[in-house]
Amino acid sequence: MSSYLYTGTLTDIGLGALTGAMPVMRVRPETEAFGPDGLVSAAPFPVALNPTTGAFSMTLVPSGELTPARGGAPGVDYIIEVGRFEQAIDGTYFTGVDVWKFTAVAGGGNVGKMNGGSLLAVWIGPPWPASPLPKGLYIDTTPPNDWGIVA
Length: 151
Prior knowledge:
By secondary structure, the protein is mainly β. The protein has one domain (about 5-85, about 95-125). It is about 0% helix and about 40% strand. It has strands at about 5-10, 25-30, 35, 40, 45, 55-60, 65-70, 80-85, 95-100, 110, 120-125, 135-140. It has a 6-stranded mixed beta sheet, with no helix packed on it. Strands 6-1-10 form a 3-stranded mixed beta sheet, with no helix packed on it. A hairpin with a 5-residue loop joins β8 and β9. It is elongated and about 50 Å long. It starts with a strand and ends in an 11-residue tail after the last strand.
């Protein structure tokens, strides 16, 4: 199986340290796929993330070597999920999840420079961020929306 090292640095929007956000990173193929050595599960797996510097690395099969299990042309992108806990100005904590899709090119390298980069910020609250984020999805858990209905 051809697999390569993919790296990057995760920073907050203000380029600050992530220590207070307690980030957890996972990666998965966008869909279940067949690779050179058989089936590649779409289940997310953890990625080691330095909470101070935001540096991470992971070994993946390139997107071009994956074929969707349900058929179709070769090429399956990867999804990076980053969950975090952050403290709002008023002292309360809220959670957020960022999802980033990218095409893992053969040879590996920095994922921030690879095609496909679509970022979606997901916030569960209230409270909400002071400045709305572009491409943001806000999930309201205030009663009667205690099941997380999108507001």
